[in-house]
Amino acid sequence: MNRLDKWMLGMVLGIAVSGVGALASAQPLSGTVLAGFTGLPLRNCQGTYCGELQKLPFRQPLNILVNDREGWAYVEVTGTGQRGWVCLDNTTQP
């Protein structure tokens, strides 16, 4: 592998790693998020096929207890203590 090939490989890997870091930072692993819309379903498991425990009001604070790193988080509803799963794509940062 010549010098130019090594440089190109380094650039490609650097860009790939930067992209992964940006994706990871978009969804918190712990902390608090807010319901992103009125009626956000709090579910009994991970997936849209799962039953709904309740519908959450807009901007309801949720404490992340477990982040599956695949877009779903097991959360506790602030104030009520109710626990369930939400899709992190449907939440916002406080």
From TrEMBL:
<protein>
    <recommendedName>
        <fullName>SH3b domain-containing protein</fullName>
    </recommendedName>
</protein>
